Amino acid sequence: MANPNVQARIIDEATDAEGGNILCLFDGPCTNLVLTTRSLNAVTAHLDEHHKGSFCTNPRGKYTCRWILPNGELCSAELADKGTLAKHILGAHLKFYEVACAVSGCNKRYSQTFALRRHQARRHPELQLTSG
After folding, report:
1. What is the pTM of this model?
2. Domain count of the chain?
């Protein structure tokens, strides 16, 4: 069970209201507010520098996300490798979206191009006919 005081520190989209620093909530609130940008390189570098000893794989060889959710529980998503973990944190927890669906009226945004393509194939199959 997560510490109830942690929940008070969790701010919408993990952003510190004072300076715009991004609060790292991996494996508990991180005291290193060095995430000043939502980028894959920044997240990966931060994980390598400040959480290298926190990475562990489960019995199936997957990396388990240990980000504290707004309800105080740990995320526990299972990812294939450290890079996929960083992408997961960037999209799921930091809400960084770099690609958007171009279909008029569709407001879906994604952190990874493959997710946008999957969305378009499922929701806008007509695009498949027009994309050479």
Report:
1. 0.65
2. 2
